[in-house]
Automatic annotation (TrEMBL):
Topological type in the membrane: Multi-pass membrane protein
Swiss-Prot/TrEMBL keywords: Membrane, Sugar transport, Symport, Transmembrane, Transmembrane helix, Transport
Location of the Major facilitator superfamily (MFS) profile domain: 1-364
Protein name: Sugar transport protein 13
Family: Belongs to the major facilitator superfamily. Sugar transporter (TC 2.A.1.1) family.
Name of the gene: STP13
Protein's organism: Datura stramonium
Protein localization: Membrane
Listed transmembrane segments: 28-46, 58-79, 91-111, 172-196, 208-230, 237-259, 271-292, 313-333, 339-360
NCBIfam families membership: SP
Primary location: membrane
CDD domains documented for this protein: MFS_STP
């Protein structure tokens, strides 16, 4: 997190003081590196320090602050755009240094997680931190679990290579799929259309501001709903309910735009415009309490300690890669599909809902170190992957389950 803060600060300075395009590009690259480090470190940090019963809600506080930041950034951009003299963009980019400084300062005072301390051999310090964050002296069972997980993790010399082992494929498949699906929910299409639709309601030049405020506020409030419900209802329920809500919203928007808007007319009408805005808010709310935060929460709590950092790295890379792909392809898709782009994303939402229903196990209220035994080994499909590749070879050779040959063992 300290490295992320440093990248943010240097990137902000270069952008705000840019004298040419090269400085802007370098600054943006550094900011992108900061985003990558932050998305790698923060979800893992929160999942490792959180008590099991509130792990989901505490982790989603990260996403809540992201949504609040998006709302404030939109308001700052709108306000600085009104500054005469052409220097407003420097102020807009420079103000990003304030949260960057807070992140850097906070990273200096935050404690290491017990998992990290134990894995590096600081057992007593790890026990003390665990006792402090749990607020009780009765931490011996959890401490012993962390020590055992650390022992197993130290046996892994190549965590990225270990990700490809049979027993780690379910977590890897689910984490990668969630990142791809998150980008194919169509959130970018909705956010792109929002200012245009607000313009049809008569807001004129203020359409961008109203769009940012309304969708941003819905985003924040719905993420708060997720904070309070994710550990009560579970991850699967939120994803499946949101899938239905997003699917219906996108189909309704596509039908209305297909009927009322053409290449030669964008007169949506006041009544229909209000209804479409309601559908937009319905869609954004569903995304904000499901695929938005849970796309980061679930990967951070499913990988075992020996591959946790490597798995989160792959998760962040896939997410940012498909964010880039969607950003580059969206305008061309919009020109070719028109209103049909909402139907395109609706099809993906249907597919990802089936994926969740059949292949995503529930991880609510299950300690991270017990995921293998209580989640993966109990799932109808993934349990067949929960053996080492060497054990599979023994099974094929001797015909005994779990690689156990009674004669040779006796």
């Amino acid at each position: 997190m300290l490295i992320a803060g440093c990248f943010f600060i240097v990137g902000v300075v270069l952008n705000a003081a840019a004298q040419d395009l090269a400085m802007l590009i370098i600054g943006r690259i550094l900011l992108g590196c900061g985003v990558g480090f932050a998305n790698q470190a923060v979800p893992l940090f929160l999942s490792e320090i959180a008590p099991t019963r509130i792990r989901g809600g505490l982790n989603i506080l990260f996403q809540l602050n992201v949504t609040i930041g998006i709302l404030f950034a939109s308001l700052v951009n709108y306000g600085t755009a009104k500054i005469s003299g052409g220097w407003g963009w420097r102020l807009s980019l420079g103000l990003a240094g304030f949260p960057a400084a807070l992140l850097t300062l906070g990273a200096l005072f935050v404690v290491e997680t017990p998992n990290s301390l134990i894995e590096r051999g600081h057992l007593e310090q790890g026990k003390e931190v665990l006792r402090k964050i749990r607020g009780t002296d009765n931490i011996e069972p959890e401490f012993l679990e962390l020590v055992e997980a650390s022992r197993v993790a130290k046996e892994v010399k190549h965590p990225f290579r270990n990700l490809l082992q049979r027993k780690n494929r379910p977590q890897l498949i689910i984490s990668v799929a969630l990142q791809i699906f998150q980008q194919f929910t169509g959130i970018n299409a909705i956010m792109f259309y929002a200012p245009v639709l607000f313009s049809t309601l008569g807001f004129g030049n203020s359409a961008a501001l109203y769009s940012a405020v309304i969708t941003g506020a819905v985003n924040v409030l719905s993420t708060i709903v997720s904070v309070y419900s994710v550990d009560k209802l579970g991850r699967r329920i939120l994803l499946l309910e949101a899938g239905v809500q997003m699917l219906l919203s996108q189909i309704i928007i596509a039908v209305i735009l297909g009927i009322k808007v053409s290449d030669h007319s964008d007169n949506l009408g006041h009544g229909w415009g209000i209804f479409v805005v309601i559908m937009i808010c319905t869609y954004v709310s569903a995304f904000a309490w499901s695929w938005g935060p849970l796309g980061w929460l679930i990967p951070s709590e499913t990988f075992p300690l020996e591959t946790r950092s490597a798995g989160q790295s792959v998760t962040v890379c896939v997410n940012l890669l498909f964010t880039f792909v969607m950003a580059q392809a969206f305008l061309s898709m919009l020109c070719h599909f028109k209103y049909g782009i909402f139907l395109f994303f609706s099809g993906w939402i249907f597919v990802m809902s089936l994926f969740v229903f059949f292949l995503l196990p529930e991880t609510k209220n299950i300690p991270i170190e017990e995921m293998t035994e209580r989640v993966w080994k109990q799932h109808w499909l993934w349990k067949r992957f929960m053996v080492d590749d060497d054990d599979v070879d023994v099974v094929k050779k001797n015909g005994h389950a779990n690689g156990f040959d009674p004669a040779s063992r006796l």
